[in-house]
């Protein structure tokens, strides 16, 4: 008999082959976890977005073909982001509450063909303003209360068009309360509010602003007077608590990967459905690294799994279609 002391616990036993690893995995990604953002444009056809590999703007004439492909992959939810013509932008963002605007038209069109698909619609004024900010400017400052009034009108237009989930991403104080009250009073009691409750003033948004053509309007101006400082985490808990108390059904943390600690903290404290957004800068950074051979293409799925591990119930990612194809193999 060998006089040797072996370790009684060998954690590697549970890593010994792929079947064992699959059985004991603590977290798994399915297509139910993925939300595909879609950029919709005023003109016909498809346009590639230079800074976002394999991401496109779709005209209404080709939108349903794209949505069909998304649905066939098993993705159950999309998020609509309009890219409107500059001629429709003004200081007040008034096109946002035109009931026949691009976002509303896209929602109605999709619902005609895919009534069960969950449509998330962004509530913010930056796609509609000629200055690129998320709200109404007064003396160069984004005025909170004037902006909230405009957001309420925008939310009602989107709900009336058929949006299943209204997603205020503006970070104005009190907007969830007033949007919730307006939805209730207008008999949209079952319309869900997904609050971008912890949205940081981040440099990771650059490609998105190019995608919706708001970066040229914003110029060197900053959104730091209404979006959160990247230095803060306790403030995120305060923001989330306030939005839940005002009627939010789901909360969002944005950006994603650099803020996994915030996702984890929010989920642990509130135990409420928590979404994360793998934003344009994160996505493009990984895609360019993959295309240049710096990273394996499996890194995209790994990044999404990290969101899930941190506590995210669903993830908005421009790679949703790509990851779904991998999952469906």
How would you characterize this protein structure?
- With 329 residues, the chain is of the alpha/beta class.
- The chain has one domain: Aldolase class I (TIM Barrel).
- It has twelve helices and twelve strands.
- The protein has helices at 18-24, 60-72, 102-113, 144-161, 175-185, 206-211, 215-218, 234-245, 260-270, 280-291, 299-310, 320-327; strands at 34-41, 46-48, 56-59, 77-83, 118-123, 136-138, 141-143, 165-168, 192-199, 250-254, 274-278, 314-317.
- The protein has an eight-stranded parallel barrel with strand order 1-4-5-8-9-10-11-12, surrounded by nine helices.
- Helix 3 runs parallel beside helix 4 and helix 8 (234-245) crosses helix 9.
- The radius of gyration is 21 Å and the shape is globular.
Summarize the structure.
This protein is of the alpha/beta class and 329 residues long.
- The CATH fourth-level homologous superfamily: Aldolase class I
Give the overall shape, derived from the CA principal axes: globular
* Class derived from helix and strand content: alpha/beta
- Tally of alpha and pi helices: 12
Largest sheet: 8 strands, parallel, barrel
For the record, give the distance between the C-alpha atoms at the N and C termini, rounded to a whole number. Answer: 49 Å
- Name the CATH architecture: Alpha-Beta Barrel
> Rg to the nearest angstrom?
21 Å
Give the strand line-up of the largest sheet: 1-4-5-8-9-10-11-12
Overall CATH class: Alpha Beta
């Amino acid at each position: 008999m060998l006089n040797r002391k072996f370790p009684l616990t060998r954690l590697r036993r549970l890593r010994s082959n792929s079947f064992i690893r699959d059985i004991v995995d603590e977290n798994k990604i399915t297509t139910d976890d993925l939300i595909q953002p879609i950029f919709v444009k005023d003109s016909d056809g498809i346009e590639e977005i230079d800074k976002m590999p394999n991401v496109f703007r779709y005209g209404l004439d080709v939108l349903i073909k794209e949505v069909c492909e998304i649905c066939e992959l098993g993705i159950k939810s999309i998020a609509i982001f309009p890219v409107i013509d500059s001629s429709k932008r003004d200081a007040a963002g008034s096109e946002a509450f035109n009931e026949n605007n691009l976002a509303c038209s896209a929602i109605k069109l999709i619902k005609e063909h895919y009534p069960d698909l969950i449509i998330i619609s962004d509530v913010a004024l930056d796609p509609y303003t000629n200055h690129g900010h998320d709200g109404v400017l007064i003396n160069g400052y984004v005025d909170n209360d004037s902006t909230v009034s405009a957001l309420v009108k925008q939310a009602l237009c989107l709900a009336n068009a058929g949006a299943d989930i209204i997603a205020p991403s503006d970070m104005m104080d009190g907007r969830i309360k007033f949007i919730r009250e307006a939805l209730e009073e207008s008999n949209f009691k079952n319309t869900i509010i997904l609050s971008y409750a912890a949205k940081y003033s981040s440099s990771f948004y650059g490609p998105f602003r190019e995608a919706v053509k708001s970066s040229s309007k914003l110029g060197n101006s900053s959104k730091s007077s209404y979006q959160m400082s990247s230095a803060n985490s306790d403030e995120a808990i305060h923001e989330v608590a306030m939005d839940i108390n005002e009627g939010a059904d789901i909360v969002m943390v944005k950006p994603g990967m650099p803020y996994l600690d915030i996702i984890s903290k929010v989920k642990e404290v509130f135990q409420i459905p928590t979404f994360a957004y793998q934003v344009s800068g994160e996505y493009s950074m990984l895609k360019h690294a993959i295309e240049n051979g710096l990273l394996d293409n499996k890194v995209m799925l790994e990044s999404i799994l990290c969101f899930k591990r941190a506590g995210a119930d669903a993830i908005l990612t421009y790679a949703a279609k790509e990851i779904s194809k991998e999952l469906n193999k």
